[in-house]
Amino acid sequence: MANQRLRSFAADTLALVIFFTIVSGLNERFIAGMSWPEVATSRAIGAPLMVLTARPYGYWRDWFLKITSPASTTATIIMDSIALLGFQVPIYVLIIFAGGARGMGIVTGALGFAALMLVLGRPYGLWLEFVRSRFGLTGPGQKPMSLGG
Asked: Transmembrane segments in this chain: where (predicted)?
């Protein structure tokens, strides 16, 4: 049981850190208008926060998908997007504020990130499921994924 908890923590953390370091950095630079040094600062702040929030998000997403029980592909896409949006945007606002964004930079960064969460909810969900599968894990209602390895 402890081994599975450690694997779940490692998989969820790895998935979140890789995915959102890239996505958040691009959003900060090109949507929020932050300089590259500000992006580096916010990503340095963001990395430990991602480590702290990755597994709680994994729990949240699993719970949210379980209680909403999306019955179609479209419903799963929507629920994955809502789960990601509701959990990540408030954290992201704090990160870019600490990184130096102010005023309209925060507003545009948050709106840009919110739009990204809506678009990236399902791709991140698929990425998370893929990373979990590499650790021999599955989420609620998921079949173990086999990608030839």
From this structure: 9-27, 77-98, 104-124
